[in-house]
Amino acid sequence: MNTAADPAFPVDAALLQRVQTALEQLTDPEIPVVTLADMGILRAVRPDADDPAAVEVVITPTYSGCPAMAQIEDDVRATLQRLGVRGRVTTQLAPPWTTDWMSEAARAKLRAYGIAPPGRCPGPASPPEQVLRFVPAPAEPVACPRCGSTRTREVSRFGSTACKALWQCLDCREPFDHFKPH
Length: 182
Fold this sequence. Notes:
three-stranded mixed β-sheet, 4 helices, alpha/beta
């Protein structure tokens, strides 16, 4: 059997698929109802350019200071070890992660978990030029994940983690996290 643990065998498509499938099951350490793949954190599983018998797993943090990245890297390494696959984890910061990389399944899972998911970012993912605005753009309404009302307000720009803000529904009065769009 071809495994990346044996240097005599180069990584093939079947092995990459087996690794990809296993990694797609890893959940976000801070939000365990979504997977790294759902969130768009798991960017690539490919042969390691420096070692033909190893894989490279590419991850991108939701923001550069994400404290969960060390745990995510450990989880990826543990999965590779469990599969008997030699590999490395590469953290890629460019292009930066965007909430547009989140799957629709991730948005639905966040909502069901009580976290308001972000909307889609307007315009192209990385425009060639950006307009600098000194006046905040009007905020899109944030729907309460419990009752669905859009009569909500931001209580604090920072919620349970730095990538979320704390909001409150004005109808059901419940507080909830809103994943910040970026």
